[in-house]
Write a structure and sequence with these properties.
Strand content: 5-15%
Order of helices and strands: HHHEHEHHEEHEHEH
Number of strands: 6
Helix content: 25-40%
Shape: globular
Radius of gyration: 17 Å
Largest sheet: 4 strands, parallel
């Protein structure tokens, strides 16, 4: 399904009757409604960031629900799409934290390819209907993903923005990992603890301290 080591890691979930039944419902939704992201992109985060390469996890809620935006990575939009307000604020914090000027594009694939798992808690959404697939069944899979990442021997940074993401903190019990929490980058909450939280520099300091390559957060660098 994923075509990398996630297939073995998640085999117990993918082969369970409960997941098969749930995923059949999702496939039926794609036939009868406009669902985002496009079906080929549903597992994009896992495809771009194999289990063995995960160094950082950024947890989002569910995909963007506007036309052409979502492509399976939390907070990321496809090339040529107007930047969503939350992503604009992420770029502002990146500039404040590391001096990296905001990028005009919102495709965060470069981060994913460096070991940043851009994981939404819910992987699909009905067009123009936020949270429409919440509690449908995706959370069983994504909670399991957090649990197996918690079991990794290599240190991992978990970045939890907003109350929805912070709910996942109870799944992260391994003391060798770093958990960074703050308000959500949404315009409604960014001023209440997201701005000034310095997640990017804190992440790289932790990775370097543990002998791991830091993330090049600058999307302009090829």
């Amino acid at each position: 399904m994923i075509q990398n080591d996630w297939d073995d890691v998640l085999k117990i979930v993918f082969e369970s009757e409960g997941f098969k039944k749930f995923y059949h419902l999702v496939e039926e939704e794609y036939k009868t409604k406009t669902i985002f992201p496009p079906q080929d992109y549903v597992f994009n985060a896992l495809k771009l960031t194999p289990y063995k390469e995960v160094k950082v996890v950024i947890v989002g809620q569910d995909p963007y629900h506007g036309e052409g935006e979502a492509h399976g990575l939390s907070f990321s939009v496809q090339k040529g799409i107007k930047l969503p307000p939350s992503l604009k604020n992420i770029y502002k914090e990146l500039e404040s934290d590391l001096g990296i000027l905001p990028y005009e594009e919102g495709d965060l694939t470069k981060w994913a390819k460096q070991g940043v798992l851009m994981l939404n808690a819910v992987l699909t959404v009905v067009k123009d209907t936020p949270a429409s697939h919440r509690n449908l069944g995706w959370e069983r899979l994504t909670d399991y993903i957090i649990r197996v990442l918690n079991e990794k021997e290599e240190p991992v940074v978990f970045i939890l923005w907003g109350n929805f993401a912070k709910e996942k903190k109870v799944l992260i019990t391994n003391p060798q990992h770093l958990v960074l929490t703050s308000a959500h980058p949404s315009p409604f909450s960014a001023n209440y603890g997201f701005f000034g939280s310095k997640p990017f520099s804190k992440t790289n300091e932790f990775l370097e301290k543990n002998g791991l390559e830091p993330i090049d957060w600058n999307l302009r660098n090829k």
